[in-house]
Specification:
Helix content: 25-40%
Structural class: alpha/beta
Keywords: Lyase
Domain Amidohydrolase-related: 74-251
CATH class: Alpha Beta
Strand content: 5-15%
Protein name: Amidohydrolase-related domain-containing protein
CATH superfamily: Metal-dependent hydrolases
Order of helices and strands: EEEHEEEHEHEHHEHEHEHEHHH
Strand order of the largest sheet: 1-4-7-8-9-10-11-12
GO molecular function, one term: carboxy-lyase activity
Organism: Microlunatus parietis
Radius of gyration: 18 Å
CATH topology: TIM Barrel
Distance between the termini: 24 Å
Number of domains: 1
CATH architecture: Alpha-Beta Barrel
């Protein structure tokens, strides 16, 4: 089974009005990324996946110009609506800011909507990831069995603090909450070494490979670190739609050795790559397979 664990909720149900069109030049080096999209665009992008985990980032405005963040009530409502219409393929994660006064009301509402995990980006949401409100929220997620997917690593957004996304911050979270299931997005690029040694030591901490296949050396180096440290089995497939599609992610992974062709550099074993593509992400995160569900 192919599970794409990293997809941003489509911004529009049907046609995108001209005034809502957004594109952003800093996510990829080869082309601009159109971040306004429809349910049909999303369906086409994730077609190779059997299951997709869907979310956006709840933030006041940090990503508003890119179309990748919204107020919590908007992003969670939109995510739940898409999942309700696509119950056998989509799993929805909520996004909240643990420091907001109404966070627990929104968490309760999101859970009633059927969202079963959390997406956090402390750098975009501008909260201290080891602060008291965040730690209280992680404790709740551990207790309630809600996996958290953290944005990890670089960002082109100027005011988003990089130190909030450094992988060793997640190491401290995992030490404090050993039963909390965590996904470190993007293998923490460019800090893949720190990500690998973190996922290696914590049984319930994983990393997704979303977006790293857009940079050939980052991809090769990241997978090599994971292979040499015996942590390749902790890697999960992710596309980072709309930045890329599931098919792009799979094809990119399978090109990992192209950059070292004809050299004496070690190759990434084919089975490592195929195991990422077919990883048991749902089992790892304690999530039910949605393919037995029907529309409510």
């Amino acid at each position: 089974m192919i599970v794409d664990v990293h997809c941003h909720t489509p911004t529009h149900t049907h046609e995108v009005p001209e005034e809502d069109f957004r594109s952003f030049s800093a996510w990829r080096t080869d082309r601009d990324v159109v971040t306004s999209n429809t349910w049909a665009d999303f369906d086409a992008a994730i077609e190779p996946a059997d299951v997709a985990i869907v979310f956006n980032i709840a933030a006041d405005d940090p990503l508003g110009s890119t179309g990748l963040s919204y107020r919590p009530e908007d992003t969670n409502t939109a995510t739940a609506a898409y999942v309700k219409e696509n119950p056998t393929k989509a799993i929805g994660f909520m996004s909240v800011n643990p420091t907001k006064p109404d966070v627990w009301d929104e968490v309760e509402r999101a859970r009633e909507l059927g969202l079963v995990g959390v997406k956090l980006g402390a750098n975009y949401q501008e909260f201290e990831p080891l602060g008291k409100p965040a730690l209280e929220f992680y404790a709740y997620c551990e207790r309630e069995g809600l996996p958290i997917l953290f944005h990890q690593g670089a960002s082109p957004i100027r005011h988003a603090p990089l130190r909030y996304t450094f992988p060793l911050v997640t190491d401290e979270v995992a030490i404090a909450f050993p039963e909390l299931r965590i996904v470190m997005a993007h293998m923490g690029h460019p800090w893949a070494r720190e990500t690998v040694v973190t996922i290696r030591k914590h049984p319930h901490v994983y990393a997704d490979v979303s977006s790293i296949y857009l940079r050939p050396w980052v991809l090769y180096e990241s997978l090599l670190f994971a292979t040499e440290w015996g942590a390749a089995g902790k890697l999960l497939l992710g596309s980072d739609f709309p930045i890329a599609t599931t098919a792009e992610a799979i094809a990119g992974l399978r090109r990992a050795n192209d950059i070292v062709e004809g050299t004496k550099f070690p190759r990434i074993p084919d089975e490592v790559i195929e195991n990422i593509i077919n990883a048991d992400a749902l089992g790892a995160l304690g999530l039910a397979d949605p393919r037995g569900r029907t529309k409510s």
